[in-house]
Amino acid sequence: MNAVPTPLAAASTSGADLLLWVAFPYICLAVFAVGHVWRYRQDQFGWTSRTSQLLEHRWLRWGSPLFHLGAFMVIAGHVVGLAIPDSWTEAVGITEHTYHTTAVWAGSVAGVAMVTGLGMLCARRLLTRSIRLGTDRSDKLLFPLLTATVLLGITATAAHNVFGPGYDYRATVSVWFRGLFVLQPQPEAIADAPLLFQLHALTACLLFAAWPFTRLVHVWSAPIGYLARPYLVYRRRTTPAQAPTAPGRPRPASGSRRAA
Question: How confident is the model at residue 209 (pLDDT cuts 50, 70, 90)?
Fold first, then answer.
């Protein structure tokens, strides 16, 4: 007997849904993969993020750790929420209520830390003239796109799961996300999701497409200890007039010359 398609899939899947939730994500993933190969072949030694500590360090001292730590927590939360089915977490004894409560509050803390750090880094880049002049075109694309993606995710969580009635994205958005990677796309799973979650998903796809052409590629060359490593400290080279002298030995005059 032939399987009969479900009414949900037959009724809600349209050409626009296929374009937005199947074609567009696959195009972005293809650009992500091919772009990394191209970047590695063309700019293998340019993967590291250029330091600007010499130009300004006060905002960098707080903004960079907050952003990187918050980003690490946000990525970890997305991996658990999108890639792991709810049946798996329930199988290990984590109830749906416990998961959502933990995800909402831990995600909120991580999101606030990431937004605070990103805001400090953006303000630093805009307000410090020397850094602003050194901002290339990829950064001008990356920072607004990254900011929009993060803010849409936080707004969606706050509007629906903190101050709203609650929304189980693991039954819709997560199903769509996993379907892309197993080559069984289910656009109907996200087609009826709230608009904020849809916009967050679309900007995330754009971020993946822009990834290989921006400074985000330094993620792949950074070790796990990157978050805790100390900053590179730049010191001025000691001049002869400032060099310490041995006890009892007179310091030569700055204008003296060595005898021929």
Answer: very high
